Amino acid sequence: MVKREFWLNRIEAAWERRSVLWLSGVRRVGKTCLCQTIPEIEYFDCELPRVRRLMEDPQGFLDNIGSKRIVLDEIHRLQNPSELLKIAADHYPQINIIATGSSTLGASTKFRDTLAGRKVELWLTPIIINDLIDFKQTNLQHRLLHGGLPPYFLEAEYPEKEYQEWIDAYWAKDIQELFRLERRYSFQKFTELLMTQSGGVFEASRFAAPCEVSRGTITNYLSVLEATYVIHIVRPFSSRRSTEIVAAPKVYGFDTGFVCYHKGWLQLRQDDFGVLWEHFVLNEIIAHTQTRDIQYWRDKRGHEIDFILSHRRKVPIAIECKWSEAGFSPRQLLAFRRQYPDGTNYVIAHDVDRPFETEFNGISVKFINLETLIADLQR
């Protein structure tokens, strides 16, 4: 079983802050396998009836635990999961607990208490650069085509049938158990359209007719997909200037493999790498920053910056994603910096071995690889 060292270190760091950790991420992203590689851990699968019976009396269950570290996998299957975690956090701080789920903690109505102040959250994303080394498969083009769910990433052949099986399981287990939506066709059609147009600007009214539902239902579907980590909503950065896009978000599929599957890409052409690299960079930023507070910028003349980071009201960091640094044009950054002159400018390209810096019309631009970006963001 592969030890994903980056994530194991994150878990240990989280336990130093709180005894309860909520580990979330999409189905088959590797939550169970990750937990089972933690030293001295005891694993409980809450999908099993006998395990659920064990936990009907939370205090009795915790009193009889011999281990100092336990996993409660698929904890939303319990009748009252938040009660058990609350008791554990308040009265059994010596027991380190990981509770896993395929959605944000507040997505399920079963969580009557979101455990504010009692837990740390960790979002397990599809495979990142650190994981490539652990899996001993460093072919980035393979990662872009197969995606970052470990079972599909490790397949030698393109796992086309497995993607559809995942979609069926996602509807049956995540959507029906947590949200109990109706109209399977409409929901899956909407998901398919989003994946096909992944990275584009989202307008709910454009999806209503092909999905045969109202605009309000489309908006609800979007929130469900976001709560279960299947899409990322990247909202516009602006200061409400009349020349800027201020409301329309961009929507990204959670994984390059599923984007390729829905686009019908069984092999990648040179033109495909740019959009997939943009998705991969976004996944990397999310994994390391553990935030959804990532934006983009666009004006009404069509200038656009892929990602803007402006945490805690700091000057905006502009990030442009290019598969090759030779494909960069400064036009977009120059337009952005005319409006927002302060802040760092990055071009993230997979073929930059050594970072370098260049000026364009007085604006400094750093050309770096993804590892350097992450190192810079963590300073």
What would your notes on this structure say?
The chain has a nine-stranded mixed sheet with strand order 6-8-7-9-10-11-12-14-13, sandwiched between helices. A five-stranded parallel sheet has the order 2-3-4-1-5. The chain is α/β, with parallel strands linked by helices. It is 40% helix and 18% strand. It contains 16 helices and 14 strands. It has helices at residues 5-17, 31-36, 49-54, 58-63, 81-91, 129-134, 140-146, 150-153, 160-178, 184-196, 205-211, 215-227, 256-263, 273-289, 331-339, 370-377, and strands spanning 20-24, 42-45, 69-73, 96-101, 119-123, 200-201, 231-236, 250-253, 295-298, 304-309, 317-322, 345-349, 356-360, 363-368. β3 (69-73), α5 (81-91) and β4 form a beta-alpha-beta unit.
In short:
Helix content is 40%, strand content 18%.
Based on Cα principal axes, name the global outline: globular
Strand order of the largest sheet: 6-8-7-9-10-11-12-14-13
Q: Main sheet, how many strands, which sense, barrel?
A: 9 strands, mixed
Percent in strands: 15-25%
Question: In which range does the helix fraction lie?
Answer: 40-55%
Backbone CA Rg: 22 Å
Please report the distance between the alpha carbons of the first and last residues: 32 Å
Number of helices: 16
